[in-house]
Amino acid sequence: MNSALTVAVQAVIMLVLLGVGYGLYKGRLLGDDATKQLSNITLTVIMPVVIFNSYQTEFAPEKLRGLLVALVLSFFAQGLFAAAAAIIVRPTNGNYQTERFALCYSNCAFMGIPLVDATFGSDGVFYLTAFITAFNVFMWTHGVVLMSGGEKRSAKERLKSFLKILISPAILSVLLGLAFFFMGLRLPDMLQTPLNYLGSMNTPLAMLVSGATIAKSGLLDCFKSRRVYFLQAFKLIIVPVLLTALFVPFQMFGVNGLIVNTVLIAAAAPTASATIMFAYKYGRDEKCASNHFTLSTIASIVTIPLIVMLSGWMTKLIVP
Hints:
The chain is globular. The mean pLDDT is 85. It has 14 helices and no strands. The protein has a single domain, classed as Na+/H+ antiporter like fold, CATH 1.20.1530. By secondary structure, the protein is mostly helical. Helix 2 packs across helix 9, helix 2 packs antiparallel against helix 10 and helix 3 packs parallel to helix 6.
């Protein structure tokens, strides 16, 4: 319950920051170019720094085992979302590629890192990197095939997509962080302190960008589509509840509850902002993408704490 309360408080804080970003965009103090630049800085610099910082800890075999467990749970969760999207959204729908993508992929970095960091600290972010890894592997393979049309892609294009996984800032920061973790290397204070300052910028910048994106997309349009409500109910509630029912019992066999809740928060995060970028890139319905992003981002302020609360209740019920 304490974790749920912490997530709820952090969610309210993030909602306020979203409102600031929304107001800055509407007040023309934050334009499209600035929003794009801030987004790029957050994705390519700030978030990788947060991920790397999470590995600046003493090597311990139990942490390595926990990371492997988190990786298995994360790949399973991502696969379940992909399967659910394929079943729920039929290819007869004109926007099925965009809708499936919106259901499959979450803002596990933009929303996940601030929430997990505030709730569980660097240990939580350490395990969250497993979900970010699974997210990137799925998105740059399954996601690209889905949005571009897999049958039209050559072997060279598939290889290029795979290489993008390996050189993405998030994956590079995971690999570099793991190398330091295994070798027991710690940065000196003169380097670690500025990295800590950069990492502390993650939450405000991520929320300002998200708020500006909502303002640009149109706040009210997303509330007019019943289909968006229907699909987001699966994205934010039904699949996360199913994952909670599947993952929480693992604690009876020694799996750390912190790992379970970290993966659940990442899985319960709203539709990825990448949905909009992929829609633009591959000529899909960007309005549909922005509606899913906007509604899910707002709704997740309530649904994520509820998922964590459900996890806590189930833990008390079945774990001795």
